[in-house]
């Protein structure tokens, strides 16, 4: 896990045939730009200027091959590469497709430049993992992003036509006249433009026709988790006490049995009585993990909002609410010397786990929404998980977004997933797959616990006080005139307006505003993203962000 920056020093003619070279950029400037994301790679950094004037820069967080895996990495001859992510099948690729190649390192990243040398542009589907990369070979290049967008990537052009790629927007925002998010599941070359390489059958919601096979579902998630234990540094798990993180924790513990490695688990809340901390404690005790509880105050959370928005590069309300505790937890984890954690992102999108899914009008609409949510994860939970953790040089791995597991889970008929089919129990089939009485994965009270969104689970006062704080900082007149100031994604609440002001301060460009997608629940009267805004919640408060905000004035 790292931060990457690449600069293509010129403008390509039609079809990428020739390059109109521009004056060489100052490498001192490039180093300064790259250091804006130095938090992503605190272990080492390096820069390579190619013979043709193109630049690759890298900020490294050392996870695999701690001693010789420094980037940029040169291929067999003239190709060079930078990569952010993890390639879980790198050993298999070395033994098979790349068996004739000589490698300079044992890093998982190096297979990318050799795959380019072996197959040209057509190799992204051979990668099993998460990635954002750029390979430069002479004046030719290819940039690519993983299928779901677990790893961030941005691209843009400057006033003279140079093209930029970077892991974070802050690196290139003031250098480029236009920039945007690099679409997940695509690669880009000067000859082809953007090409979608990831086109699974399940993108079409009507292809979800597979019968339910609980054994296959369970074994697929176990296999996805096993891949993500690949590491040369200590591992941990983010444990909220909810179903998703508890399952990945339980699976990881089983896979590590007999290795002598004890898994560290981490939870966060406002105090010891936070809903997530109570549940996480039960899971950690049950599994025998080395458990750590982290606390933060509401005042501390409010105090770091400006810095948090700079790290997240979004003004989405849900992302900011949930990222605050994750940001504090990530710092505490890295302070303890842990560099890699498993996390449960993606399960709610795949299985319709959010409470609003109970109100889906039909199985078809339920499936359409799960497909849409998974496809937009790069703008929501993946963005939050990556940038909250990487703000402190911590790598989060997400087993639920494994390609094979996604295929297994997304092709199941939606009738098996709908909560109303099973007395209102969300993610029923996932729970049932791991309900193994002969050797339980989890205690029943955790396995069948109601969905609690992370920003709620740390303590209900967090969101309530946050809404009130933002309401006290934004006037009625400011909110009423929001459409005049912010024509793109106009904020409709004082909380949203408050975050937008912070974002605009750091990223005033229109291109920046367009990179953000807002997370809004469907099929319920109150569209606040808190789970408690849904009437089905056991402690529902359907006035969230409505009357509470007004009362704070």
List keywords for this structure.
553 residues; alpha+beta; Glutamine Phosphoribosylpyrophosphate, subunit 1, domain 1; Rossmann fold; 2 domains; six-stranded antiparallel sheet; 22 helices; 35% helix; globular; disordered C terminus; asparagine synthase (glutamine-hydrolyzing); asparagine biosynthesis; ligase; ATP binding; asparagine synthase (glutamine-hydrolyzing) activity
Mind telling me the CATH class of the largest domain? Alpha Beta
* Secondary structural class: alpha+beta
Helix content: 25-40%
Mean pLDDT rating: 92
> If strands are numbered along the chain, what order do they take across the biggest sheet?
4-5-1-11-10-12
- Compute the CA-based radius of gyration: 23 Å
Number of strands: 19
Spatial gap, N to C terminus? 44 Å
CATH topology of the largest domain: Rossmann fold
Strand content: 15-25%
CATH homologous superfamily placement of the largest domain? HUPs
Q: Helical segment tally? A: 22
How many domain modules? 2
Low-pLDDT residue intervals, each spanning 5 or more residues? 547-553
The largest β sheet comes out as:
6 strands, antiparallel
Keywords: Amino-acid biosynthesis, Asparagine biosynthesis, ATP-binding, Glutamine amidotransferase, Ligase, Nucleotide-binding
Catalytic activity: L-aspartate + L-glutamine + ATP + H2O = L-asparagine + L-glutamate + AMP + diphosphate + H(+)
GO cellular component, one term: cytosol
GO molecular function, one term: asparagine synthase (glutamine-hydrolyzing) activity
């Amino acid at each position: 896990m790292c931060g990457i920056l690449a600069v293509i020093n010129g403008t390509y003619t039609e079809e990428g045939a020739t390059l109109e070279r521009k004056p060489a950029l100052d490498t001192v400037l490039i180093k300064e730009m790259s250091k804006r994301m130095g938090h992503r790679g605190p272990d080492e950094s390096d820069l390579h200027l190619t013979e043709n004037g193109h630049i690759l820069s890298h900020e490294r967080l050392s996870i695999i091959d701690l001693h010789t895996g420094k980037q940029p990495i040169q291929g067999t001859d003239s190709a060079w590469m930078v990569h952010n992510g993890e390639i879980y099948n790198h050993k298999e690729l070395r033994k098979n497709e790349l068996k004739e190649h000589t490698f300079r390192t044992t890093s998982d990243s190096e297979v990318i430049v050799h795959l380019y040398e072996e197959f040209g542009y057509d190799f992204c589907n051979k990668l099993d993992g998460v990635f954002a990369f750029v390979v430069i070979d002479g004046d030719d290049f290819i940039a690519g992003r993983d299928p779901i967008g677990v790893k961030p990537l941005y691209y843009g052009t400057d006033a003279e036509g140079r093209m930029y790629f970077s892991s974070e927007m802050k690196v290139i925002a003031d250098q480029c006249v236009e920039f945007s998010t690099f679409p997940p599941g695509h690669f880009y070359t000067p000859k082809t433009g953007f090409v979608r390489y990831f086109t699974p059958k399940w993108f079409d919601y009507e292809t979800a026709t597979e019968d339910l096979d609980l054994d296959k579902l369970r074994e697929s998630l176990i296999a996805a988790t096993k891949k993500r234990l690949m590491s040369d540094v200590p591992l941990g798990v983010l444990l909220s006490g909810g179903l998703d993180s508890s399952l990945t924790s339980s699976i990881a513990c089983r896979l590590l049995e007999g290795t002598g490695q004890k898994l560290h688990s981490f939870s966060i809340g406002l105090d010891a009585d936070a809903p997530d901390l109570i549940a996480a404690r039960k899971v950690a005790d049950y599994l025998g993990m080395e458990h750590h509880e982290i606390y933060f105050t509401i005042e501390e959370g409010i105090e770091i909002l400006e810095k948090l928005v700079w790290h997240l590069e979004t003004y989405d309300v849900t992302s900011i609410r949930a990222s605050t505790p994750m940001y504090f937890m990530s710092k505490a984890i890295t302070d303890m010397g842990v560099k890699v954690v498993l996390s449960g992102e993606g399960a709610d999108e795949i299985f319709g786990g959010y409470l609003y899914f109970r109100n889906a009008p039909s199985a078809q609409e339920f499936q359409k929404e799960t497909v849409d949510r998974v496809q937009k994860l790069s703008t929501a939970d993946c963005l939050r998980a990556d940038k909250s953790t990487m703000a402190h040089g911590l790598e989060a791995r997400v087993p639920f977004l494994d390609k094979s597991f996604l295929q297994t889970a997304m092709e199941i008929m939606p009738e098996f997933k709908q909560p109303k089919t099973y007395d209102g129990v969300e993610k029923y089939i996932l729970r049932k797959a791991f309900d193994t009485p002969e050797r339980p994965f989890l205690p029943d009270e955790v396995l069948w616990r109601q969905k609690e969104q992370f920003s709620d689970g740390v303590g209900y006062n967090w969101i309530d006080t946050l809404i009130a704080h933002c309401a006290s900082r934004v006037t009625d007149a400011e909110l009423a005139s929001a459409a005049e100031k912010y024509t793109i994604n106009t904020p409709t609440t004082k909380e949203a307006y408050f975050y937008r002001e912070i974002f605009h301060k750091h990223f005033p460009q229109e291109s920046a505003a367009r990179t953000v997608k807002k997370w809004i629940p469907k099929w319920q009267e109150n569209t606040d993203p808190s789970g408690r805004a849904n009437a089905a919640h056991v402690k529902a408060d359907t006035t969230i962000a409505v009357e509470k905000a007004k009362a704070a004035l």
